């Protein structure tokens, strides 16, 4: 029987964070730091339990370990994202690029490599939650059949709603605000997400995922162009010969 995740939204008040990790020490430490930071914390030690908890009390954010018994974090993330937008921060033990890329590919909004500082994780949680909140007074953006409403955090292409993660939404908004300008991956990392440092491959993954949702043919992108030796440029107008 398919699990339903149409639980009522969290009531106004402290954000609810679901911590999913089979290591009781990690789970306890993370939950303790988040509790002291003012969050309501739920905990689960495996994938099925995490999905049950999410169905009972929809979290505002999930801190999700990649390596879980029974059902790995990638599958948990897929199922969570398949039933509505919920921010996910993935925890990976090995720190290998493939693990990080896989997490981002299935819709995780951020990742933290073990061992990590619990204080850093709390800051990541605060950053992701802040970006997930509606922006009051933001003007609607649009070009090339794309329409983006920052206040509602809603994006459409030719009238059809796009299922974007927080990072993808922020990236598309940035491109729409700066058409025709080329930006390096370092620039995008800093300007879009406020990261002073990090793995540049995460930018590449987000661009690839975004292309898959806004381009007619992601293999031959016409909107988000690669500028060799520089980075990327959003080009809403007709393609130029030779590009």
Write the layout of secondary structure elements.
Blueprint: E1 16-20, H1 24-36, E2 40-44, H2 47-56, E3 61-65, H3 73-81, E4 88-92, H4 97-105, E5 110-113, H5 118-132, E6 141-143, E7 146-149, E8 154-157, E9 160-161, H6 166-177, E10 182-184, H7 185-193, H8 201-214, E11 224-227, E12 231-234
Parallel strand pairs: 1-2, 1-3, 3-4, 4-5
Antiparallel strand pairs: 6-7, 7-8, 8-9, 10-12, 11-12
Helix pairs in contact: 1-5, 2-3, 4-8, 6-7, 6-8
Task: Outline the structure in words.
With 243 residues, the protein is α/β, with parallel strands linked by helices. The chain has two domains: 16-132, Rossmann fold (3-Layer(aba) Sandwich), CATH 3.40.50.2300; 141-234, Orthogonal Bundle (Arc Repressor Mutant, subunit A). Helix content is 37%, strand content 20%. It is built from eight helices and twelve strands. Strands 2-1-3-4-5 form a five-stranded parallel sheet, sandwiched between helices. A four-stranded antiparallel sheet has the order 6-7-8-9, covered by helices on one side. Helix 4 (97-105) links the parallel strand 4 (88-92) and strand 5 (110-113). Helix 2 (47-56) runs parallel beside helix 3 and helix 4 (97-105) runs parallel beside helix 8. It is globular, with a radius of gyration of 18 Å. Residues 138-236 form the OmpR/PhoB-type domain. This is DNA-binding response regulator.
